[in-house]
Every structure is written in C-alpha cells, then in structure tokens.
Amino acid sequence: MASAAAVPLAPEPGLSRYAAIAAALRARVLAGEWGPGQALPSEQALAAQHGVAMATLRRAMELLASQGFIERIHGRGTFVRAGLSAAPMLMRFFRFGDGSGEVPTSRIVSRRKSPAPAEVARRLGIARGDPVLQLLRLRSLGGQPRLLEEIALPLPLFQVLADTPTAEWDDLFYPMYAQRCGVHVQRAVDEIGFGTLNAARAAHLGLAAGHPCARVVRRAYDLAGRCVEARTTLGDAHAFHYEVTIT
Amino acid sequence: MASAAAVPLAPEPGLSRYAAIAAALRARVLAGEWGPGQALPSEQALAAQHGVAMATLRRAMELLASQGFIERIHGRGTFVRAGLSAAPMLMRFFRFGDGSGEVPTSRIVSRRKSPAPAEVARRLGIARGDPVLQLLRLRSLGGQPRLLEEIALPLPLFQVLADTPTAEWDDLFYPMYAQRCGVHVQRAVDEIGFGTLNAARAAHLGLAAGHPCARVVRRAYDLAGRCVEARTTLGDAHAFHYEVTIT
DNA sequence: AAGTGGTCTAGACCACCGA
DNA sequence: CGGTGGTCTAGACCACTTA
C-alpha cells in the first residue's frame, strides 16, 4: 500500500478526486481526529496519505477553507476552525454602541433549569421535556437597557453554567462556551422578524407594552451540526438596522 | 516580444501574478472591451496574451468568477456576467406569494420627472437637482396591495422609460433596464430597517396611518460601479421575514 | 534553518458543448 | 469533430513563521 494506494473506497462515484478528499477530511474532523483550533497534518503528509499530488490536496483544502471549515495560515499550518470570531455577532443588527465609544454591559436577569417547552425543543432539536438551562439576559449601553435575550441551552452539555455563579460569567458567551463547556459554535442562523413587546418584556427594556420590536431568532451549531443554543433577541424596532449585499 | 513578454507594467508591485492579471482583465471589462453577456477569449488565448501558464491564468479567472464578475460555463466559454438573476430579488424579504401559487401583480401608480431631492441625489451619487425619473409602484397579491416601492432613476440614462407608456412595461424591472436602456444591474445593497407609515403611504397599502412597516432601501449598481437605481420598498412589518447565516 | 502554506510552470488527460 | 473549461501531475521556487 505504498504508491498506488489512492482512494480506498470512493465515497461518491461521481465525485472528483479533490472533492472526495475534502469529504474524507471533513469526516475525520467531525469524528474528532483533530479538535477545534488544532492543526491538521501538513499538506505534504496529507497528499502522501491520500496518494495524490500536492496541488490536488491543496484544492481539497481550499474547498474546506472556503466553507469556513478550516483556516489556513501561511507559514504556520492548517487549523480546524475554533469557532465564530468572538466578535459582537449579535449587536451588528442593532444600532448598539455606535459612535460614543461607550462600553456595552450585560446582566443575567434570571437563570433556571426546566424541561424544554415544545418550541425550545423544536429549535434545539431535542425532545420535549428534555432538561434545558433557560437564561434571561439584558444588554445595556450607557445604563440604558437595549436588548433582551432569551437563551436556551441543552442541559447535560452546559451543566457547568448551571453550577457557576452568574457573576463570574464572561461577557462574551461563545468563547465562554468553548472554555468552560467544550462547546465550539461554528455556524449560526439568524431569522429576523418583527413583533410587539408584551408588558413583562417591555418593562425590562424600559419601553411601553405593545412597543414595536425587532426579533432575531438565532440557532447556533457546533462542528458536528448539533444545535447547541437557541437564542431570541428583542430590541426596539426603530434601532434595528441591517445591510445585505446581493450579487 | 514573443516569449518573455510577461507583465508589461506591474499595476501594483506587491501583487501576485494572477491577481495582477485579474485586475487587468477586470479593467478591460470595465473599459467595455467585452460587454455583459459576451464571451471573453479562451483561457489559452488569454494565457498567451499575458505570457503565463494556463494554471495561473485560470487562477485569475477563478478569482473574478468568485467575485461574481464573470461566469464560466464548461464547454462553452467564459462570459461577462449579464446582471443579477432576473429573480424576485426583493420579495424574498417579505412573506409574499408563499404557498397559494397566486401570481403577484404590479402597477405603476405614478411617474414623474423631477430634479433630484438631496436624499435621492446622495443615494444615486449625483448632484442635487440633476434630473431623475421618480416612480411609485404598488405590488399586489390576490388583489391585496402588499408592497409600495419608491424608485428613482438617473435621467439621461433612463430616458426611454420616461417616453414609454407604463402599460407596456415589463413586470421584472432589471431585465427591462438591460433590454431597453442598456443598463445591467450587477450588484445591489439592501439596508433594512423598521418605521411607521404616513397617511399617504398607508392608504396605498390599505393600512392605517402609523402602522409599523419594514423598509428596504436598495441601491443597485452596474458593472462600472455607478449607482443606477435607488429604491425604497415599504411593507407591513408583520409580514417581514429574513434569514441570515453567519459563518 | 527547517517547516509551513502560496505561487507558478508545462505539460497530460477528461468532460462538456456546439456545429 | 474541434474547442471550451475542469481535473490532475510532478516538479520548482517564494514568503512566512518558529525556534
């Protein structure tokens, strides 16, 4: 099995060589062979493993990189993507922290363990009644509450957060998930809609009941495609703003 | 100047060969050497012209293709992109025509030539007072008006539309711009926000004054990067829905 | 200096399209 | 069939990072 090893069993007959290799590498990553943030073997090594020329192996890598699955760093190596950039992924939908340079703050209003209601279960892809951690979080700017977040986390996975005082939590949740729970958010889908605030929610935001709000429903997924967080963010509709480029 | 012709004058010193070639090709397209929808020379011809290997030329082409600038069709050739897919680019933001299979209709409510107000001029990137064609268009579904569009078109360019009875207009505007005015929309930017309807606009949509609305402000650009259309679309906020994937 | 990914070459062969 | 773009090879050399 030295030189003519090549593809052992074609995963899909109609697939080009580089696409097959990309699929194989993807599978190996999902199987946990290399974890998020870790380096893959060098191109040379992988090319030898798969019995193809370097250029072909590189095409496979480029494919995976273009899909955001791996990250290639010149002179250092190729790495499994560690997760979404720690950045303020959410606030970008709202005029939040623009200009003044003021620091946004966040506060956990409530935390409770409970069986998943139907809607939450559906979003997380778990069974109704499975245990989840439900959080209510208020994000403020300059002392003004701006965004209300309702977050649901599947529970065996996020048990650590149920046991840690919320005062010790980090401001950025996704890096915290990675460090404390070993959960790496790799992809998220946001659904944007519109509605009005009920009295309880409006009170948190300092608005009148019935005030129009923008609603961003997010589902966050890890590398394996499991939904690991369901989050609904509500904010004043008039402060909502988003830009899309169509090509 | 046969074999060692190569790059005549490097456009940017720090640029790789393929990036330089991509830039050069881009410039030739913008200069009008090949119009939208037309074929570029074959890879072989272009590689010879630039004095590089086919693989390098191909990298340049792949770059341009990934940017949506050209379209490569196996066995046929490489073409300058003709414009945005004729599709219902706009309605995708609204629940509009879902399910029932009913046919959306559109009607031009008003058309008038006028000097550009400041806001319109800013969006189109022209001077205040330059002549524009301003349209008001109502899009309906099942007899129900759903979207109100305010469209501004710079005027020397779209004169044909000022002279053609609106009854003869096509339903899809972008293909019509291409056929009748020689304007190919290649890229568009949408800004999404929420607001409320004033009495006049609400009346067109059959809603009450002050009703919450979603507002999509679009700027459409041609290949050369000129803004050729400024469009504001208003619709019932409760019918608004959009999905974004973050990676 | 050794190891990584990035660029480039000069070919070969294949898959697709149209006359 | 001839011409197009798509895949693949087996090299060479360059640029960047780390130690």
Describe the structure.
Two copies of one chain form a homodimer. Chain A has about 250 residues and is of the alpha+beta class. Helix content of chain A is about 25%, strand content about 35%. The first copy, chain A, is built from seven helices and nine strands. At the A-B interface, strand 6 and strand 9 of A face strand 6 and strand 9 of B. Strand 9 (about 240-245) of chain A pairs antiparallel with strand 6 of chain B, so a sheet runs across the interface. Chain A binds a DNA duplex (19 and 19 nucleotides) through helix 3.
Question: How do the strands and helices of this protein lay out in sequence?
Answer:
Two copies of one chain form a homodimer.
Chain A (H helix, E strand, L loop, with lengths): L16 H14 L12 H8 L3 H13 L3 E4 L3 E4 L23 E12 L2 H7 L6 E11 L2 E11 L4 H5 L9 H9 L3 E12 L2 H7 L6 E11 L4 E10 L4 E6 L1
Antiparallel strand pairs in A: 1-2, 3-4, 4-5, 5-8, 6-7, 7-8
The first copy, chain A, binds a DNA duplex (19 and 19 nucleotides) through helix 3.
